[in-house]
Amino acid sequence: MHFDDKIPIYYQIKTHIYHEIITGTLQPGEKLLSVRQLALDVTANVNTVQRALSEMIAAGMIDSKRGKGNFVTMDETKITDLKTQLITEQVARAYQQLHALNLSDEEILTSLKHYMTQRGNVE
Amino acid sequence: MTAGLTLQGVQYRHGMKMILHDVDLTITPGKIIGLLGENGAGKTTLMRLITGSAKGKGTIAINDATVVGDRKQHVSFTEQLRGFARETRVEQVVNFYHDVYGDFDSQRYQDMATFLQIDGSLKLSSLSKGMKEKLIIALTLSRRTDLYLLDEPFSGIDSMSRKRIINSILQWKPDDAIMVISDHYVSEVAAILDEIVVVKDQTIFTHEATDAIREKYDVGIEAYYESLYEKGNDYD
Q: What is the ipTM of this complex?
């Protein structure tokens, strides 16, 4: 995994796993790799991976079963909520950046629609 | 009992010249530390003080072992393969390690040698710089101990080998062991470091958690490290 040196590594690992949960690469109830395997998988430190996992466990997205390992939550509502949250974050970021260019809400909508049409034409 | 590595009031002079002074440092078990500083800042000296191969003032403890003889049991450091004749073969060096260190795990060495593609039949004199570094890393990590010191393991190493070395560190470091990796160029290892310790102005200039740096200052580790050498840095 390629990390951005400016963003805390534990946060990037958390985001990476959340993406896998939302896109279904990791299914509800699926077992995660061991901490060490995950660390090797993304080329990060065991402590950093553990921190990412602890935060996901605290958020209820991962269930830690003693002696058995870590599992993606079975609670589909939580996964839907997470998806909504991540979408909101992405949209907010894009909105703020466009807003900073002095675009009105109307213009932001128009430019987004325009982009989607253009993109459709290309594909 | 204080677990981990502790240095208190450590000072080292070479003749009249002060190399390190007022070194206070505490590292908790399990951490991977980047020991940073310019060439000649005293990084290797600090490692040699920790192992006891250099003698200075102050107290150094590894998991409560303060006496040099006891400390050596708790630390693995392979200093440049000094002391071996040029025509010594790699496998002879490995046998020597096996005989000298009770905690040397031969199976582990074989696993690492295979992974890092080290040819045991080669003579030390025929090893490239990169191959020599790989051998040093395999020897160092094959001991089962509490503290591992790697002195600039990435110097003269291509990017494929670097990836393998980083992978070896992550794979073979025992969970509770401390790993100290010195480098004067941090970007190669920044992602696997828990904390950085910067040696500057003959002492520990900074000791901070890497993710805390990213969170607090919104910069990368390399940019942060470089800023310490610019006048009027704003991270005080």
A: 0.84
